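Posting for a labmate who doesn't have an account.
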Amino acid sequence: MVGWFRTATVLPEAVAPILARVGTPGITEPTPALDLLKRPGVTAVELARVGGAPFDHESEGDALAAVEVELKYEGYVAREIDRASKLREQAGFALPGEIPYADFITLSHEAREKLDRVRPATLAQAGRIPGVSPADLQNLMMEVRRWRAAGRPGIVAVPIL
């Protein structure tokens, strides 16, 4: 089913009533079903019906609903998977004990206090401290790079998110 939405095109006259109903601009030439499916309010069942899909779009309603979610959100899911992968790669980044957390003004006051008190050994440990937000972790990476660039020893180069 997913393959059909990736390869099929839908004719303007077939999809016009659906696009009018959901209040989205019409099309003037055959358009990939996937592009139409990503429009708000357009459903996989409707597109399969008007696009002549080679499967029973009525009895396959649950499967089509799953396909719809998969295809509509695949870009978001891919970005989140990429972000999680980058965070996993950086989780083992060592944080030397002499880091001057109190001087890192881009971190929240609470994060500076807690990081200074706990002195985590890695970015992953810092991320598990209550009160240290994802934004604080991003800023910590930036501050560590600045600290390193200023000639402070003991910091390993960090890939940029």
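Reply:
Got it, the structure tokens are right above this. The chain has two domains: 2-72, 90-149.
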